[in-house]
């Protein structure tokens, strides 16, 4: 059996795809059960965070395993396999181990060096253990990944390179300024009471906010979090809990809002945020135009029910066929727009020639093909002077996947929204610490050690079976000798028994020690097969030793 991981993350897929592929708790459970029920896999664990979905499995066939795991991810995420496949990555055996160890150290995180991933890996292992989908391989792998991650944080300065996603998000809200100075005296609303929301609340409390209101669908959990914040010695914050139906009122009072729930739909719509801003300022916030880039020579667009653009929001001189028009569209909408443009190419109007319309339609079709690969065409907004945009009165941090807060909030004046997508863009420019190289060396060393241990463990049942067979042969021959020489006394029988055992042990010692050493090296797994063939070992005997070892591991494993 061999380790296989199939997944997607912020490094391989746009946030829009990650958002659609996000799995709720029930879907994660069903995915794990279906994976171990599939033919290629015997073990499974799932690492699902706000910016990654990775399915780990112990499989007996590589290609069949990749196909099965990819299909299961598509089925349970609801994203079609053809659409999902370009964003998936695959790691096998040592590369899979290297990947998980790198993830555990924070090297693959959106914010390099962050330590939250360790808790998420621990939760993933606990879930797989509770569902009985993790066996010896994944238990050993995930537990070692936790140890490697802790080693990286204790032996290097990777913590200086990284920070939690919460801290990074608050820095973005503060526009690069001092977070404590920015947060001092503000009122905060935290929506959700899970691990990420709890971290956000604690971080805000330490930063110096005056009040934290916790809202959660399960009111008891919100109350517990509020009590913890209130009783903490390292802050002087006032904390209280409210029910979810109180969020609209609390939103009007809050200066800072952090949302991280497991909801599959929006928790805060653009309308609710706009109403909150109006409640604070007395003036409704003006939404920025959806399209700000213009082409002066282009004709003014006219209404057309088949055009997918928001023509009412277009400015004078705006071209409905230029790249600015399609910025931010997904592939399906782009294809619809291309069809509309191509249909209009036979009806030149407003100075458009048939040839130019055909060229525009081809351009949009090409952009649609690009969007099918990268998710969507990035939005292109014309930068505005700071003076033209009012200072934010409400700051929102959305750490949920899928998103809790409507992305349209980005266009509301008086509001600053930081979400996973904007965090991904900001983190791409973040400096790397020198300690990252040291962590990479730790990961490489640990991967080599883990691989050697796994390969050595793989041959152990075969060696045990060989020694058992030798002991049985010795016992049978001693019994036969006793029958043929009944006049031997006990001392003589003992001497003969010890002599035969010494001969067998000396003959087996060097080969078994050497085969364990060879098996620990890359490509050494074939030595177990060679031993079984050379000594004609019963495969069932070897398998029974493996089952006994697994049973002992399960019995001795701490709860």
Could you name the key traits of this structure?
559 residues, alpha/beta, 6-stranded parallel sheet, 4-stranded antiparallel sheet, 54% helix
Describe the structure.
With 559 residues, the chain is an alpha/beta fold. The chain is 54% helix and 11% strand. It is built from 22 helices and ten strands. It has helices at 15-21, 25-37, 62-77, 81-84, 94-104, 116-130, 136-155, 158-161, 165-173, 179-183, 195-207, 219-231, 247-253, 270-281, 323-326, 331-344, 354-374, 420-427, 435-484, 490-519, 526-534, 539-556; strands at 2-9, 41-49, 52-59, 89-92, 187-191, 211-216, 238-243, 256-259, 394-398, 415-418. The strands form two sheets. Strands 7-6-5-8-9-10 form a six-stranded parallel beta sheet, sandwiched between helices. Helix 5 crosses helix 7, helix 5 packs across helix 19 (435-484) and helix 13 packs across helix 14. The longest helix has 50 residues, at 435-484. The protein is elongated, with a radius of gyration of 31 Å. Residues 290-304, 311-324, 345-353, 376-387 and 554-559 have low confidence and may be disordered.
How would the blueprint of this fold be written?
Elements: E1 2-9, H1 15-21, H2 25-37, E2 41-49, E3 52-59, H3 62-77, H4 81-84, E4 89-92, H5 94-104, H6 116-130, H7 136-155, H8 158-161, H9 165-173, H10 179-183, E5 187-191, H11 195-207, E6 211-216, H12 219-231, E7 238-243, H13 247-253, E8 256-259, H14 270-281, H15 323-326, H16 331-344, H17 354-374, E9 394-398, E10 415-418, H18 420-427, H19 435-484, H20 490-519, H21 526-534, H22 539-556
Parallel strand pairs: 5-6, 5-8, 6-7, 8-9, 9-10
Antiparallel strand pairs: 1-3, 1-4, 2-3
Helix pairs in contact: 2-3, 5-7, 5-19, 6-7, 7-19, 13-14, 16-17, 19-20, 19-21, 19-22
């Amino acid at each position: 059996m061999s380790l296989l991981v199939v997944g997607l993350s912020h490094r391989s897929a746009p946030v829009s795809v990650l958002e659609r592929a996000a799995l709720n708790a029930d879907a994660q459970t069903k995915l794990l059960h279906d994976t171990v029920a599939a033919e290629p896999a015997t073990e499974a664990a799932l690492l699902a965070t706000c910016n990654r979905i990775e399915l780990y499995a112990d499989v007996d066939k590589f290609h069949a395993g990749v196909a099965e795991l990819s299909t299961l991810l598509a089925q349970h995420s609801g994203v079609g396999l053809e659409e999902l496949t370009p964003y998936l990555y695959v790691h096998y055996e040592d590369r899979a181990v290297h990947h998980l160890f790198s993830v555990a150290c924070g090297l693959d995180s959106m914010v390099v060096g962050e330590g939250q991933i360790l808790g998420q890996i621990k939760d993933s292992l606990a879930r797989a253990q509770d569902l009985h989908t993790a066996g010896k391989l994944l238990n050993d792998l995930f537990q070692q990944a936790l140890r490697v991650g802790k080693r990286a944080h204790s032996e290097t300065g990777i913590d200086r390179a990284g920070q939690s996603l919460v801290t990074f998000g608050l820095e973005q809200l503060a526009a690069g300024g001092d977070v404590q100075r920015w947060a001092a005296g503000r009122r905060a609303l935290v929506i959700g009471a899970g691990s990420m929301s709890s971290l956000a609340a604690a971080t805000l409390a330490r930063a110096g906010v005056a009040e934290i209101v916790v809202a959660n669908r399960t009111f008891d959990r919100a109350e517990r979090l509020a009590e913890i914040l209130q009783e903490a010695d390292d802050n002087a914050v006032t904390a209280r809990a409210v029910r979810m139906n109180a969020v609209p009122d609390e939103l009007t009072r809050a200066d800072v809002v952090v949302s991280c729930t497991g909801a599959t739909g929006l928790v805060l719509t653009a309308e609710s945020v706009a109403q909150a801003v109006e409640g604070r300022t007395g003036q409704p916030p003006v939404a920025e135009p959806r399209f700000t880039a213009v082409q002066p020579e282009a004709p003014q667009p006219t209404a057309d029910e088949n055009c997918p653009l928001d023509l009412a929001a277009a400015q004078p001189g705006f071209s409905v066929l230029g790249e600015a028009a399609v910025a931010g569209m997904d592939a399906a909408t782009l294809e619809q727009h291309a069809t509309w443009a191509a249909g209009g190419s036979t009806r030149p109007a407003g100075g458009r020639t048939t040839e130019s319309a055909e060229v525009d339609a081809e351009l949009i079709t090409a952009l649609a093909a690009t969007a099918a690969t990268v998710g969507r065409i990035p939005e292109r907004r014309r930068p505005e002077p700071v003076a033209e945009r009012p200072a934010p009165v409400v700051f929102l941090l959305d750490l949920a996947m899928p998103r809790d807060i409507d992305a349209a909030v980005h266009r509301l004046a008086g509001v600053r929204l930081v979400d996973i997508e904007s965090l991904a863009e900001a983190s791409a420019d973040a400096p790397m610490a020198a300690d990252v190289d040291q962590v990479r060396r730790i990961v490489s060393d640990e991967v080599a050690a883990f691989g050697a241990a796994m390969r050595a463990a793989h041959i152990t049942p075969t060696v045990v079976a060989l020694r058992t067979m030798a002991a049985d042969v010795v016992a049978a021959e001693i019994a036969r000798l006793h029958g043929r020489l009944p006049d031997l006394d006990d001392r003589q029988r003992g001497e003969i028994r010890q002599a035969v055992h010494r001969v067998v042990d000396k003959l087996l010692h060097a080969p078994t020690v050497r085969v364990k050493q060879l098996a620990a090296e890359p490509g050494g797994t074939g030595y177990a097969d060679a031993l079984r063939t050379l000594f004609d070992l019963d495969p069932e005997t070897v398998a029974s030793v493996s089952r006994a070892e697994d049973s002992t591991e399960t019995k001795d494993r701490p709860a």
